[in-house]
Every structure is written in structure tokens, then in C-alpha cells.
Design brief:
Blueprint: E1 14-16, E2 21-23, E3 47-48, H1 62-67, H2 72-88, H3 93-119, H4 128-132, H5 136-186, H6 189-193, H7 195-205, H8 207-231, H9 235-263, H10 285-299, H11 302-315, H12 320-333, H13 336-352, H14 359-369, H15 378-390, H16 394-401, H17 404-407, H18 414-426, H19 432-485
Antiparallel strand pairs: 1-2, 1-3
Helix pairs in contact: 2-3, 2-9, 3-5, 3-9, 5-7, 5-9, 8-9, 10-11, 11-12, 12-13, 13-14, 15-16, 16-18, 18-19
Bound molecules: zinc ion (2 copies).
One zinc ion is lined by residues 4, 6-7, 10, 23-24, 26-27.
């Protein structure tokens, strides 16, 4: 079993032939619902490993296999048919044959349903009611198959002698599970009887098939032991016990064969997944991008991971956790360039978000990677200055405001910023002169701003006046022109036209 490259404890479900990477359902690109999952690294379609790789080899789940019939439905079927078979075998004649045939048919049908279910990856036994309804054609084919093989074996032994006949009977016995499996997959008796098919199926399954045969022989041997042990005691209960054991083994054997299909489905041209694992075709776009990021990070492809994170954040701007995750990654990776670019955006999002108190912590984490970090937004720097001033960390607050007028000469609230700086400096020891200087600068800025505002207002008034004046001028001109030319405003419906 190969595991996912990025989840060593998870079995792989896909393989990329280009990158030679095994990946699980969570680590493949399911962004395009119309194509098979793609590789996050190279973008090529990946090959599905189906459940073959997912499945534990059957000899490693023997306990589960032998516990499979231990439930009320299967258990009661085994015991009731066992008791009936045991009693009926002492009845004389044709009735016994017919009744025991019906009982066997019910058991065979149920076991075959166990096989079919298991092969689809559903390891819960079928319901009795469901099992006894429908599917009679397949049952008939299976019964015919078993009878044909038995008759052929007997025929071979009685007509070809014990050596050659024995070999043929042995080969038939060896092929019977493969024929049953083939019938379950193809639902076609003729295909199941085809010896070429049978041979290729046995070689496709390989060693586990031999193990299956081994278990079948052990089970049959144990039946012999049971009958010998109890036959001396009391024949009816011995027969009942033997029938129950035979029925139990029968169900287990069919469950094993079903598991063989499930386990080898890729080789047998059959596809199923374990029922509790439906893959993630319904995964949302954001989850797909998040999976991609996870793969990039584990591959150490950080630049690509950063790009995907930016895509994710642009597409889902309201999801704060993506922004937090990206921030964490940038801080941990120590990527100064991207962190510088992203930090202003991130800090601004926090400042405007539901938890602005996180601002100080976030800033300090950035500063661990980029000492003396300053955001590229003047308003953010003022906000940070306020935060740190409140927290009593005046040094950081001062750093935010110092030299702001040089970096952002056009910042609208520069005067307020320097007023704040003056207030902070005033509280520092031996900084009174600086504070005063700063206060003067803030006042100067305020005055300048006021002047600018007045000037703007004045210009606006002048401009408005000019516009009005020119409009009047135009109107007057057009009126005098109109009276000269005889045309009038009547064209506009303002003055009634002279009737001629
Ligand atoms: Zn994985
Ligand atoms: Zn690839």
C-alpha cells in the first residue's frame, strides 16, 4: 500500500505519472468537475488508484472477515438453515431433497449478496429481506455453475480414473472461486465458464487467491473434524452443528471473494471505493485552493503557496482565517519581501475588523521578522501609534509618527499626527524641547491647512462667480443675436411664436 506523499498515514488514491507522486483525495486538484482530479504540482490529470491501494490486504483483516457473519440477521439465517438442513437430512426421499435445495438456494443467494456488497466496498452484511427479493437470474446462474462444476468433477473422476480425473477435479475446485468472482463481475455464466478468463483472473489476483484457496481447504477440513467428533455422540445435533458451521464458512468464503474483487478491482476491471469514502468531488473552490496551498507548502514551493494564498484572499475577502493563515505562514517562513507587501493590507484588515485589539500583537510579530517595520499607509501608522501609546509602549508609537511628513507630505491629517506625536513626546523625560518643536510644527501645519482650506473656498467662490457671469454674458449675447436675426427663444417653447 502506497501512502499519500503529504499524509504518510493516509493511503494514496491518485498517482501522477509525471511527478511520480502518490496523493490522497485531500491532496489532488478537484477544481474542474468535468475532468479527473489533477496534480497540484504539474497540473496533469492523475490516475485513480481506486480502492485497490486503499484496501488492506485480505490476510491482514482476517479477524474482521471471520466476524462478518456475527450479527443478528446473518447469524439467524445461518442457524435456522443449519437446524433445518440437519433435521431434513434425516427425512426420507424426494421431499428432503427439494426442501434442502430451497434452503441452500436461500443461503447461496444471501452469500452472493454478501460478495456483491463487499466487492463494492460496503462491509456491512445485507438485510435478509432485501437479499431474498430479486436477483433470481443471477442466483440461477450461480446454482447452475456450482452444479456444472460438481458434475464435471464427478464425471472426470469416474471416467478418467483417479489420477487424471483427480487432477481435473482439483483444477475445477481451484477455479470455482474465480468463476464465482467472474460471475459476480460480469453477470454472465458463459463468461464465467471460460477457462481463459478464469486463468487470467487467477493470475491477476495472484498470491491472495492461493491464500483464499488455503482458507477454503482449512474450512472444509474443519467441517470433517466436527462431523467425526460429534457423530459418535448424537447424530442429529452433530449434523445440525456441522450444517451451521458449513453455512458460516460459506458466508465467510463469499465475503472473502467479494473482498478479493474490492482489493483487486483495478486488475479485474472494476471500480469502487470504500463506502465511507466518497472522495471529495463536492469540495468547494476555497477548499480546493486551500488543499493546493497545503501541497505547495509541504513541497517547499513557498512562492507558489504565497500566490495561491493571495488568490484565495482576493476571492474570499470576508474569510479572516485565510488572512490569518497567510500571515502565520509569512511570519514563520521569514519571507521579508512578501511579508512587507502583505502586512499593510493585513494590519488594515485587522484595524477595520471585529478585533482591532489584535493590531498590536500582529505588528510585533511582523517586527520580529522585519525590525523597525513601518506600514506604507500613514493612517495605519497613526492608528498603530495610538494603540502603542495606550499600551504605554511609547517608543514604538513615536517610531510610527517620526518623519511622517517626509514620507507622506500630502497626507490629509498630518497636523493631527504631529499633534499626537507632540502629546507623546511631552510625556517623555528630557523630550520637552522636542515636544515643543513638534507642537509648533503641528500648529504650523494646522494653520497651513486652514489657509489652504480658505484659499480653496475662495477660489471655489471665484470660480462659481465666473461661471455665473459667463452664463449671463452668453444669455445676453444670444438674446441680442436672436432679436437681430428674427429667430427667437420661441424655438425652445419659451416665447409664443408670432403668427403670420
Ligand atoms: Zn494527502
Ligand atoms: Zn504531477
Amino acid at each position: 500500500m502506497d501512502s499519500c506523499k503529504y499524509h504518510p498515514l493516509t493511503p494514496a488514491t491518485f498517482f501522477c505519472h509525471k511527478c511520480k507522486i502518490n496523493a490522497c483525495d485531500a491532496c489532488v486538484d478537484t477544481g474542474n468537475v468535468y475532468s479527473d482530479p489533477k496534480c497540484f504540482i504539474c497540473g496533469k490529470e492523475m490516475e485513480s488508484l481506486g480502492a485497490m491501494n486503499y484496501a488492506v490486504p485480505f490476510w491482514r483483516r482476517l479477524e474482521e472477515t471471520f466476524r462478518y457473519p456475527f450479527n443478528i440477521q446473518t447469524g439467524s439465517l445461518i442457524i435456522i438453515t443449519g437446524i433445518l438442513t440437519g433435521i431434513i437430512s434425516f427425512l426420507p426421499g424426494l421431499i428432503a431433497v427439494i426442501v434442502s435445495f430451497i434452503i441452500s438456494a436461500a443461503l447461496v443467494k444471501y452469500s452472493f449478496d454478501c460478495l456483491e456488497r463487499t466487492s463494492r466496498g460496503d462491509f456491512t452484511p445485507p438485510q435478509l429481506i432485501d437479499s431474498l427479493e430479486g436477483g433470481r437470474l443471477l442466483l440461477l446462474q450461480l446454482v447452475v455453475l456450482i452444479i456444472l462444476v460438481t458434475v464435471a468433477a464427478l464425471f472426470a473422476i469416474s471416467f478418467l480414473g483417479s489420477f487424471i480425473g483427480g487432477i481435473i477435479a482439483f483444477l475445477l475446485f481451484v477455479s470455482l472461486p474465480a468463476m464465482t468472482i467472474s460471475l459476480a463481475i460480469e453477470e454472465n455464466l458463459l463468461e464465467a465458464l471460460n477457462p481463459v478468463k478464469t486463468y487470467s483472473m487467477i493470475t491477476a489476483i495472484g498470491l491472495p487467491y492461493g491464500l483464499l484457496l488455503g482458507f477454503l481447504m482449512i474450512m472444509m477440513g474443519s467441517l470433517e473434524v466436527i462431523s467425526q467428533l460429534f457423530s459418535m455422540v448424537e447424530p442429529v445435533s452433530a449434523r445440525i452443528l456441522q450444517s451451521c458451521a458449513a453455512n458460516y464458512y460459506w458466508v465467510v468464503a463469499f465475503h472473502m471473494m467479494g473482498y478479493m474483487i474490492f482489493e483487486n478491482q483495478k486488475h479485474l476491471g472494476f471500480s469502487a471505493r470504500e463506502s465511507d469514502n466518497q472522495g471529495n468531488a463536492n469540495r468547494g473552490e476555497h477548499e480546493n485552493i486551500a488543499a493546493n496551498i497545503s501541497v505547495y507548502i509541504k513541497e517547499g514551493m513557498l512562492d507558489q503557496a504565497f500566490k495561491k494564498f493571495e488568490e484565495l484572499i482576493n476571492k474570499f475577502p470576508n474569510n479572516q482565517s485565510y488572512q490569518d493563515d497567510f500571515f502565520e505562514l509569512l511570519v514563520k517562513s521569514g519571507n521579508k519581501k512578501t511579508l512587507t507587501r502583505y502586512s499593510t493590507f493585513y494590519l488594515r484588515a485587522i484595524a477595520n475588523g471585529p478585533m482591532p485589539e489584535k493590531l498590536g500583537i500582529a505588528y510585533k510579530r511582523i517586527a520580529q521578522v522585519i525590525p523597525n517595520y513601518l506600514p506604507s499607509s500613514p493612517s495605519l501608522r497613526v492608528t498603530l501609534a495610538k494603540v502603542f501609546f495606550q499600551r504605554g509602549e511609547d517608543k514604538i508609537a513615536i517610531a510610527q509618527l517620526n518623519g511622517l511628513h517626509k514620507e507622506f507630505p500630502d497626507y490629509e491629517y498630518l497636523a493631527d499626527a504631529y499633534q499626537l506625536l507632540a502629546d507623546i513626546l511631552a510625556k517623555q523625560p528630557r523630550m520637552q524641547d522636542k515636544a515643543k518643536e513638534c507642537q509648533q510644527f503641528a500648529t504650523k501645519l494646522k494653520r497651513k491647512k486652514q489657509q489652504e482650506e480658505e484659499e480653496r473656498k475662495r477660489q471655489k467662490t471665484v470660480k462659481t462667480k465666473k461661471v455665473i457671469d459667463s452664463s449671463f454674458e452668453n444669455l445676453r449675447n444670444s438674446l441680442s443675436n436672436d432679436s437681430n436675426k428674427g429667430a427667437s427663444l420661441s424655438g425652445f417653447g419659451l416665447v409664443p411664436k408670432d403668427e403670420e
